[in-house]
Amino acid sequence: MKTSSAFRPSTWIPLLLLGLLAIVPTVASGFDQPYWTAFFARILIYAVAASALNLALGYGGLVSFGHALFLGIGAYAVGLCAFHGIGSGWLHLLVAVAAAAAAALVIGAISLRTSGMAFIMITLAFAQMGYFLLVSLKHYGGDDGLSVGSTSRFGPFDLGSTSAVYYAAWLVLVAILWSMARVRVAPFGMALRGARQNVKRVDAIGLQAHHVRLVAFVLSGMACAVAGVLLANLNAFVSPSTLAWTVSGELIVMVVLGGIGTVFGPFLGALLFFVLEEVLKGFTEHWMAVFGPVVVLVALFGRRGIAGWLEALNRKRPSPGPPDIVAPGRA
């Protein structure tokens, strides 16, 4: 008798954490601690961005060091539209997703002609070009950034409060986790994971691995831009620092910590990343000196990160044995 996947530790523990995160604004309001709503909202937003990166990195094996570009595109879609007096959230979202899709299509088409270190450097180069482009736009704040005077409004729903952004980010994260679970077992996801293992074999069966990976890269960039829209509304401010290479590095660390190629891994990695950062900052200003070795230890002893450890708990659970068989005529 097989245990349902919903009752496995690798499934119910992340779902429990998601459920607990759903009540954070209520608890924070009850204890008069609004900071915690903003703190966990940031975690949810970066979990969305890390999950988007996981589609390219974990499923497709595309080590992109430039996903901060798409996060920045989403943020500046809100900032620039607000600067010109456009407050419609639907238009903010449309501009963000369309611009990210166009950028990802160009970057992917160029960078996928290479592999390995060359792919990493090309994606990094494009992100740096985006960074310096925004720094040069003095009319929009340049290096000092730009305040978001008009937050995104989706009809009666306005992302002008931290709680509104929080619940929007929570819903987006749930949606993207569900999508990642579906993609993992869908033909497209299987083809993508197959291309990660052996491009020539995928091409040999007529699936065109290049096109599959390019689609995954574009979808990944679009989802990351949605996280940028939420981040701009949370901070009510956009800055070129969002496109810095260090942000791309942090997203990769979150995916590695949680588990590359797993559904809940990026969410767990983002949660651990920010909670550990917050705890260590309370003890020392040199928290990175402690955080760095932690990441190395996770990479060494848990090749699939936190999700891998939870999957190990699945195997350690005792499975129900076969029913006792009593011979006929015996008590």
Task: Supply database-style keywords.
globular, 14 helices, two-stranded antiparallel ribbon, mainly alpha, two-stranded antiparallel sheet, disordered C terminus, 331 residues
Order of helices and strands: HHHHHHEEEHHHHEHHHH
**Overall tally of domains:** 1
Mean pLDDT: 88
Structural class of the helix and strand makeup? mainly alpha
Largest sheet: 2 strands, antiparallel
- Helix share of residues? 55-70%
Query: How much strand content do the residues show?
Result: under 5%
Strand order, largest beta sheet: 1-4
Output the number of helix runs. 14
Basic shape: globular
What would you note in describing this structure?
- The protein is built from 14 helices and 4 strands.
- It is mainly α and 331 residues long.
- It has one domain.
- The strands form 2 sheets. It has a two-stranded antiparallel ribbon. It has a two-stranded antiparallel sheet with strand order 2-3.
- Helix 1 crosses helix 14.
- The longest helix is centred in the C-terminal third of the chain and has 27 residues.
- The chain is globular, with a radius of gyration of 22 Å.
- 44% of the residues are buried.
- The C terminus is likely disordered.
Write the topology of this structure.
Elements: H1 9-21, H2 24-30, H3 34-59, H4 68-83, H5 89-111, H6 117-136, E1 146-147, E2 153-154, E3 157-158, H7 162-185, H8 187-197, H9 199-204, H10 209-235, E4 237-238, H11 245-258, H12 265-281, H13 287-301, H14 305-316
Antiparallel strand pairs: 1-4, 2-3
Helix pairs in contact: 1-14, 2-3, 3-7, 3-10, 3-11, 3-12, 4-5, 4-10, 5-6, 5-10, 7-8, 7-10, 8-10, 11-12, 11-14, 12-13
